[in-house]
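In the previous chapter we treated chains in isolation. Here, by contrast, the input contains two separate entities that must be folded as one system, with a combined length of 774 residues.
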Amino acid sequence: MKFEITKEELLRPLQQVSGVVERRQTLPILSNVLVVAEAGSLAFTATDLEVELHASLEHDVETPGIATLPARKLMDICRNLPDGAKLTLTVDGERGTLKSGRSRFTLATLPAEDFPKVEEVPSTQSVALPQKTLRQLIDATHFAMAQQDVRYYLNGLMLELAGSRLRAVATDGHRLSLADIDAELNVEEPVQVIVPRKGISELLRLLEESEEPAQIELGTNHVRVSLPGFVFTSKLIDGRFPDYERVIPADSGHPISADCGVLRQALLRTSILSNEKYRGIRFQLETNNLRILAHNPEQEEAEEEIEVVYDGAPLEIGFNANYIIDALSAIRTEQVTMNITDSSSSCLLTPDGEGGCRYVVMPMRL
Amino acid sequence: MARTWDRAIALVDMNAFFAAIEQQDFPEYRGRPVVITNGLRGTCVITCSYEARSFGICTGTRLPKAKALCPDVVRLPARPHRYAEVSSRIMAALAEAISPDIEVYSVDEAFLDVTHCQRLLGDPETIGRRIKQAVFDASGLLCSVGVSGDVTTAKFAAKQRKPDGLTVIPPWEAAEQLHDVPVTELCGIARGIGGFLERHGVRTCGDMKKLPISVLGRRFGNPGRRIWHMCQGTDPTKLTYEVPAPKSVGHGKVLPPATRDRELLLTWLLHMATKVGTRLRRHELEAGRFFVGLRTDLGWIGGKPRLPLPTADGGVIFALCRRVLDEAWDGEGIHQVQVTALDPRSTSQQIEMFAPNLDRRRLLHAAIDRVNDRFGALALAPARLLGRSDMPDVIAPAWKPTGHRRTV
């Protein structure tokens, strides 16, 4: 295998796939990137056995070939070459050689046939949408995914295809986020898949704010997202996502309408003096007024009052401030509507005038 | 008037505490070599009187060896509840007569911050004498007291004269007094750190001045920086008046050798699980991960299972125990069981989205706990525990009169 390439051309695909190369691997080959050089094209693949990232580009190849090279070392060398540097990558036998100007590096390879390959994804469903729409869908929901929860099915983002909409739901058992987008689907029966956390964070890193299409294919065990020059494949979490519709509360009849930014700022300030671990804050609601209170074990206290639209009975309820702040940060409208029934039932937050997103936060006992 | 100290810390150390209580409660043992063991089955000396110490017996001596050293030795079973009672009385008296700024360090040791009592109670030496008097008035027992400007030097001072001693080291003399003392004599410097210091040429506290503080900081972080100060009589550690949250809450029992009866093992595990649950609830804690251990001749078997949601419910903990027993035990002989909550934390006030409502269960536990507080531990308990053993409870070395370590 032999090809010539510039630093920038090589660095981009390496950086795209390197997210799944972990520093300490039990399987040495997982520290390597698979390089496939064919006539007129180059392809780079990395995997952690759960997520596979595959970047390709059109490029002249002097001698076609296939090899695996240490991903991080290759990328670090590349990154530290001068801008615009031209380099030659040759793999001959068990050694890979990278030459650029008066620099020369010899890298160890591992047999390409040992590189783990994700099995083909027999696609059962497929949907195409602009990259930025998919990005918005993930952005609006991913923060509510659980982290290393024993309920493994919560450690991911649930994607649901039903009717003519694509829905994303994430929850950690304390709060839940849900976003819908209209999409042209031809699904006969609703399909649910859970994409692991790691896959979602990689995908979010790769998706751009562009109109270019992202093709999503769902298999029974895998999800594949194809972007121009790039293919993301992730195993799915084999589990049943909880019945999320059951926990989305109905309209309380007395919605609270508040300025999203003002409420968020007030929460950011008051939560500084909440218990660092539990982050508890207290909402005191009266007609057209919301008081936010926090205190910590050091007896420090915070109090804020903000103007809201509310015509219900006085109400007091506690929350983990972070959960409300996360939801408000994901809401892009100026106004937010909150529906609270009583101090032990869930709170529903929705952006005003935009139907796609819903956020549910369970309260804390006061 | 003598110079007031910027900081004055006193350490009270009870002399041969458990043995002294026995000798006081039973005059026939006064002046005799008394050793305390765990019940009449324990074979290890928990503590012993000064008469016994003169024969070379000390804490940890096995009973047969103690008898060989001193054929007349009097062996008494420990009465942890009595010791806890006397300890609580002493600590309360000190808080009342000397200073409310008291850190109960263990069942027989307490630190007092007397910085702010100097005008009221007199100079540090007078305060030291008052402390000894207060302890004697409350219990009739003797103690050793060390007074200095920081906790490490105060503890060092208290060790200097035993029994019934009083040693005062003014803060400005602390560095000089510690100068030739080997660093490993100080409380908190064990062999590991001692070895590190020795490799850096520090054997006595006086050598510490030569070592830059950053060397210790890099290797041990803040505890390392503290050691640097400790050796120079300037330990910055403040007393803690609240018992910190526990790192684990556990109960275990030694069983008759090679117990193989599954039902018996389950009863033991339920007993331990119930105790752990009760203690977690008493201190408003819950845990999501438990160690369930069964000790065989070849070591511990068992597991550290996780729960989806943290609990303080003995029934849930027992269900875990049953699962571990089913998975890990192949019928080998067991001689000890242990159930420990590994990550206890304050009961979460966060309401769950997908969990069943446990409010009724919570009320039930609150009622059971109230009954048991009034009528004694396990007065109301799962029926299986009717046939449990009567092995006496043991007092832990870390016992405290308040907080989660109060349990005997």
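Chain A touches chain B at residues 149-151, 171, 173-176, 242, 247, 278, 280, 318, 320, 344, 346, 360, 362-366 (CB under 8 Å). The first strand of chain A starts at residue 2 and ends at 6. Compare these points with the single-chain example from earlier in the chapter.
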